[in-house]
Structures are given as structure tokens and as C-alpha cells.
Design brief:
The protein has helices spanning about 5-15, 75-85; strands at about 15-20, 25-30, 45-50, 55-60, 65-70. By secondary structure, it is of the alpha+beta class. The longest helix is centred in the C-terminal third of the chain and has 11 residues, at about 75-85.
Amino acid sequence: MNRLRRFLDAAQESGFVNVRESQNDTIRWLKRETSDAKSKTHHRICMDALTVSATVYWMDSQGNVASKSFRKPLEFREWLAFETAP
């Protein structure tokens, strides 16, 4: 998970907690500790050490699953600060 350290730090600073990891430590799932006020669901993040990326999943206003993937930790951190602030 060292390859994902900056992604992981940004997620944890934004209120995400570890849910599960793959046995070989290449995939990690996180969820937001507090639910979204509108959808009453928790945002989820999948971090992939093989592609060195993070994908955020959430419910849109129509109740559909939406997602956004990031390969740069700085862009991920900025998006989290803007989009998922409690």
C-alpha cells in the first residue's frame, strides 16, 4: 500500500475509514464515516495499487451510482475537499 500512501492519507483526512483489503494488499475499500445528507448513503473509495489509482463511488440525485477515478493524489485530494466536505 506504500504506492497508495498519498491517496490513503487524503481519504482518511476527509473522513474515510478502511472497510476491507485484498489478501495480497493490492485493493483497498474505504467508506465515509458519515452518510451523505441527501442520499443517506456512504461514499465509497476503491484504491488499486496495480494501477495506482483511486475511484470514488456515490449516489447521484436520481439514485444512480456515479463514480470518478483519479491517478494523481493531488487532484484526488482537491476533489475530496470540494465535493465530499461534510
